[in-house]
Specification:
- The protein is mainly beta.
- It is built from one helix and seven strands, in the order E-E-E-H-E-E-E-E.
- The protein has a seven-stranded antiparallel sheet, with helices on one face.
- The two termini are about 15 Å apart.
Length: about 140
């Protein structure tokens, strides 16, 4: 398990952003990435539960980071987020993402958020395309 370098002002995981959600990503030996997070009142949607937009932002970042870690400079062009169960605040949630398929013009990804009992609360699929001209100044910074 290796900690991924952070990338500055990111809304989800950047330490240079005072409003960051504060996630730290780790790479799995078998591929893909994961993080653990405890969502707070700052992420609330329905009372006691995480806002769907916060879940979507985290899964988008997870899938994008997995593709970046695989060596591609990408942006999302399509996200599909499916909500299976409410995500509670104040509990450890596991977030995972992996690269699914690599095609000449697109990269397909999958992701999920798991509750403490191991059940899946939210799943995501994404389509990412290489766009080095848009992200040329954004890199994962080695500490």
């Amino acid at each position: 398990m290796e900690k991924l370098p952070e990338h500055g002002p990111c809304f989800v995981c950047g330490t240079q952003n005072p409003h960051s959600m504060g996630l730290t990503w780790y790479e799995r030996e078998e591929g893909g990435i994961f993080a653990e997070m405890i969502f707070s009142l700052a992420h609330q949607g329905p009372p006691g539960c995480v806002h769907g937009g916060a879940s979507a932002a985290v899964l988008d970042e997870a899938m994008g980071a997995a593709v970046w870690r695989a060596g591609f400079s990408v942006v999302a062009v399509n996200l599909e987020i499916n909500y299976h169960k409410p995500v509670p605040q104040g509990q450890v949630i596991i977030i995972e993402a992996r690269v699914g398929e690599i095609h000449p013009r697109k990269i397909l990804t999958t992701s999920e958020m798991r509750l403490p009992d191991g059940s899946v609360a939210v799943t995501g699929r994404g389509i990412y395309v290489e766009a080095p001209h848009l992200v040329k100044d954004i890199q994962f910074e080695d500490k």
